[in-house]
């Protein structure tokens, strides 16, 4: 299992949360981008 570059933020349920800082929001967007790339490569490899 390869090491994940980004870990899912704790309690992250929505993309943008007013209670989260901009830093945390942008990190979450990065996390989701990585997740999408990962899923796309899994689909291609099937």
Task: Outline the structure in words.
This is 1803_t:CDS:1. It comes from Racocetra fulgida. With 46 residues, this protein is mostly helical. It has a domain of 28 residues. 50% of the residues lie in helices and 0% in strands. It contains 1 helix and no strands. The longest helix has 23 residues. It is elongated. The mean pLDDT is 76.
List the helices and strands and how they pair.
Blueprint: H1 22-44
Radius of gyration: 12 Å
Number of beta strands: 0
Task: Give the CA-based shape.
Answer: elongated
Overall mean pLDDT stands at: 76
**Number of separate helices:** 1
Sum this structure up briefly:
With 46 residues, the chain is mostly helical. It is 50% helix and 0% strand. The chain has a domain at 19-46.
Distinctive features:
1803_t:CDS:1
């Amino acid at each position: 299992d390869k090491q994940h570059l980004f870990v899912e933020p704790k309690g992250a349920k929505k993309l943008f949360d007013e209670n989260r800082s901009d830093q945390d929001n942008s990190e979450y967007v990065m996390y989701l981008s990585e997740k999408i790339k990962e899923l796309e490569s899994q689909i291609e490899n099937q």
